[in-house]
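hey m, so remember when u said the tokens were messed up on ur end? i reran from scratch. heres the input so u can diff it against urs
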Amino acid sequence: MSTISTKEDTLLRIWSETQGAESEAYEGDLQELHRAMGIRRRQARRPWLFGAIAASILLLAMAGEYLITNKHARTEEIITYVTSPSSKGEFILPDGSHVWLNSSSALSFHQSNPRNVKLEGEGFFDVAKKDDGQAFTVNTGAMSIKVLGTRFNVRSSSHFEREEVSLVSGRVEINAGDNTITLSPGEKAGIENGILQKENADITYDSSWTQEELSFDNAALSDIIAGMEHWFNVNIRVAPDVPLSSRLSFKIVNESLEETQRIITRITGCRFKTLDEQNIMITKR
């Protein structure tokens, strides 16, 4: 086993062991570590939601020295921000860009070029413009998204049916194989059957998971399901007989995924079945 692999295994073990730590000493040291890493910590109104800052860790993925103490961190080569399966986090990159990572997500970049990043999972980007016009690029498994300064959401994970990009403001250029398209605000693009396609879409809930709460006011069940998918970072499959036009009003603040499912079941009579860690089926009774 290589030295690099050994370092990664050790770091992952430390991360797993420390996720349950609650001592004041640990918390104080972690805050100083985050400041050294350039991470902005948000005060969580929901510990389960924004605890990613307390669970995130900086990993060294390539050759180079790595040092963690209880006071500071120093790395060379590749930097990776990671969130745990039950939390989300907000990060400030060295170029001033803001990135929100949903649960079970990772963002990595070369220390010498923080405007060329790789994403696994789901991330929302608020990209800082550079005076020299240098582009910001997000690479996923199948797409390369290039921007100059904009706000957009990217979802890329093997757990979901497709990779997709939703544009809130600005313009982005997306490359996937031999296909290239440009998105305008309010448009969404995704890869289906190996083909990159775009569409006009309601992207209201695509980035809603970055907020402090999620409210539905006489919203269609189809929109609520879309909001839940991003809020809880899951994939919800819908049976053909589910009444997607049913309208509901409620708010998610501290509710867990299971509690939210119970609310919808009480109102609509629909049932949820967990297929695996990130896939759920909703059916009519």
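this time it looks ok to me. Residues 126 and 151 are 5 Å apart (CA to CA). if urs says something different then somethings off w ur setup not the seq
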